[in-house]
């Protein structure tokens, strides 16, 4: 009985660790996306300051290529929309992982209580010398 509970407990601990690892990976990804979104917001503000006759250049490899202002704004808007959708996806994954981690913790608490009770029963059932 005690060994069975210990196996379940260890299995649950392993699942918890894996979910925490996944959570930290998603958190890092979210921070990167957040940084990219902030960069693009700054770029959009800068583009909004320009007049229609201003020249805009795009860095393609080692070369600066002239780009239409309207096209540049559209590209930044599309990029921001994509980043926002990725942020939402990552936030949803984080929320799911958060629930799973809470569930693992609750299960671990129950297993720990069951383990303690099994130990008490085992010690009471031992013959006294």
UniProtKB/TrEMBL annotation:
The keyword Chaperone applies. One of its GO terms (molecular function) is unfolded protein binding. Residues 94-121 form a coiled coil. Keywords: Chaperone, Coiled coil. InterPro entries: PFD_beta-like, Prefoldin. Pfam families: Prefoldin_2. The keyword Ribonucleoprotein does not apply. One of its GO terms (biological process) is chaperone-mediated protein complex assembly. GO terms for cellular component: cytoplasm; prefoldin complex. Heterohexamer of two PFD-alpha type and four PFD-beta type subunits. PANTHER family: PREFOLDIN SUBUNIT 6 (PTHR21431:SF0). Belongs to the prefoldin subunit beta family. This is Probable prefoldin subunit 6.
């Amino acid at each position: 009985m005690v060994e069975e509970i210990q196996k379940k407990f260890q299995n649950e601990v392993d699942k918890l660790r894996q979910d925490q690892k996944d959570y930290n990976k998603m958190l890092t990804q979210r921070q990167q996306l957040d940084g990219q979104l902030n960069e693009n917001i700054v770029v959009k503000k800068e583009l909004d300051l320009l007049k229609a006759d201003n020249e805009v250049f795009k860095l393609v490899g080692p070369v600066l290529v002239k780009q239409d202002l309207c096209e540049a704004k559209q590209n930044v808007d599309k990029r921001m929309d994509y980043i926002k959708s990725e942020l939402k996806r990552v936030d949803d994954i984080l929320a799911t992982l958060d629930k799973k981690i809470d569930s693992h913790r609750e299960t671990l608490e129950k297993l720990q209580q069951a383990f303690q009770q099994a130990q008490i029963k085992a010690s009471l059932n031992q013959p006294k010398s």
